[in-house]
Amino acid sequence: MKDQATPFVPQAFMPAINPIADCDSYKLSHGAQYPEGTTHISSYAEARKAWDGIEDVVFFGLQAELLKLAGQAVTLPMVEEGAEMAAAHGLPFDRAMWTRVATDLGGRLPVRIDALPEGTVALVGVPLFRVTNTQPGFAALTSFLETRLLRATWYGTTVASLSRHVMGEIRTRLIRTDGSDDGLPFKLHDFGARGVSSLESAAIGGAAHLVSSMGTDTFPALMLARKVYGADMAGFSIPATEHSVMTALGEAGEVQQMERLLDANPTGLVACVSDSYDLFRAIRDYWGGSLRDKVLARDGVLVVRPDSGDPMEIVPQTIEALMTVFGSGMTPQGFRLLNPKVRVIQGDGIDRHSIIRIMDRMIERGLAIGNIAFGMGGGLLQQVNRDCFGFSMKASAIRIGGGDWQPIFKDPVTAGGAKRSKKGVQGTFVSDSGKMVARPAANIPPGADALLPVFEDGRLLRVQTFDQIRARARLT
User: Fold this and answer.
1) Per-residue pLDDT tens for 352-403?
2) Which residue numbers belong to the known binding site for diphosphate?
3) Percent of the chain clearing pLDDT 70 (strictly above)
4) Exposed, middle or buried by CB within 10 Å (0-12, 13-18, 19+), for 17?
5) Pair (408, 360) in one structural domain
6) Could you say which of 127, 306, 316, 386 has the lowest number of CB atoms within 10 Å?
7) What gap in Å lies between CA 369 and CA 338, rounded to an integer?
8) Could you give the number of structural domains in the chain?
9) Alpha-carbon torsion angle 403, 407, 412, 416, nearest 10
């Protein structure tokens, strides 16, 4: 444990590239397009719609990006590189603005970002963060940052929201069949590291999953959670086999490899993929035959992993086959539960919908959810996109010539209201019913805006820890 008297100092997980290049290309041309005399722009970001039954989101990921923007983010060599690239790319470049950032402001970005605390569970349609430039002459920076700020938050928030939703579905059924949610933190395991597009995606998405779970095999997520959010160890795994191990001695040697696993791990949980050749032979003749006494004598639990076939059938069949050779009991709720020395994990064919179908099939067959854990890979970290929740960041207010804020918005007739944006400087207010709602910042009592300052003029104002984030997102 860290000395509680020593404040946590977050670090950027991965170095940033030249921030002038981290944008949609057309952003470079927008400075000259705003009305003459524009001094300030205010933008907000939100999840615009529910995603197939998930109506709230868990805000996550902003701090990791703000660490890259903090301090001297822009230097004169970066300005020169940006100018050269823009010219070759066919776009205008606001050399004067960027040079002022690099010289007059010491490379610090003159913007303020106010955001919900990470881990906050908010209904869709609620502003998650607000961005405003802090000095005249830098209005273009507000929307310029859209590319990276939205990318940094839509992905982490989507994965965190998906993970929490699935954990909630597991929890409901676990209580129904087992009488409590004991063991819930390890019921959904992240298998997604190899199925994502980049190391950074694995780290961000994997950490987002760990907001609601403690089971993961995505090691980069642990590094991000430690460096960015101060988590000594955010998740856990166990020794486990893969097919390269189980087939190393051929079909005849599979049982020898199983025994080797048990001998190498006399205590604790171990997982073994058991379908390399014949899953039910492995259960009947190996685990429940020649190795049965070793399994029962261990001070720990053997987790059997099937990895092929229709999981709707394979999962209950695997559990019932293990019950035949190891025995079972009944929960107080009247569902069959395996001998405590044995459990099952299913990782093949798993997504948010199949998990629910599998659990409901188990319940139909009288099997407790305590028998099973799930590993989700691509369905957790990769099969998501910005459109799942309709994430957007929109300019909503402008100041011209030193005047008051004026609302700006879009409302395309062709979208039928689906893309109507909010007007005016936006805030988030907690209503009398306890729900967060969108409200113009001017109509929120002083000190009651749920969007709190997190970044201003290159300084990170509020450090959030993983423990705090988990507490806000906790299922109740």
Assistant:
1) 999 999 999 999 999 999 999 999 999 999 999 999 999 999 999 999 998 9
2) 194, 243, 305
3) 99
4) exposed
5) no
6) 386
7) 10
8) 2
9) -170
Predicted local distance difference test score (pLDDT) of residue 418: 83
Average pLDDT over residues 89-118: 98
- Sequential DSSP letters for 208-270: HHHTT--EE--HHHHHHHHHHH--S---B---B--HHHHTTTTGGGHHHHHHHHHHH--EEEE
How do residues 135-166 score in pLDDT, each as one tens digit?
Answer: 999 999 999 999 999 999 999 999 999 999 99
Half-sphere exposure of 421 (CA within 13 A, CB side): 21
**Annotated binding-site members for beta-nicotinamide D-ribonucleotide:** 217, 305-307, 347-348, 378, 386
For residue 268, the enclosing domain spans 181-381
β 299-305/342-346 pair status:
parallel
**Structure confidence at residue 72 (pLDDT):** 96
Instruction: Examine the pLDDT at 1 and tell me if it is beyond 50.
Output: no
Question: Residue 142 in contact with residue 132, Cβ under 8 Å?
Answer: yes
Q: At what angle do helices 62-69 and 146-178 cross, to 10 degrees?
A: 150
Who's near 39: CB < 8 A, 6+ residues apart?
136, 137, 139, 399, 400, 401, 402
Say what angle helices 219-229 and 62-69 make with each other, to 10 degrees.
60
> How far, in Å, CA of 338 to CA of 352, rounded?
25
CATH code of residue 356? 3.20.20.70
Q: Is residue 307 part of a domain?
A: yes
Task: For residue 32, tell me if it sits in a domain.
Answer: yes
Residue 387, sorted as left (phi over 0), alpha (psi -120 to 50) or beta, turns out to be alpha
pLDDT value at residue 13: 83
CB of 70 closer than 8 Å to CB of 107: no
Residue at a domain's end among 381, 416, 437: 381
**Residues listed for the chain:** 476
Looking at per-residue pLDDT, the higher value among 1 and 305 belongs to 305
Cα–Cα distance between 462 and 449 in angstroms, integer?
Answer: 16
Verify that 129 and 185 share a domain, yes or no: no
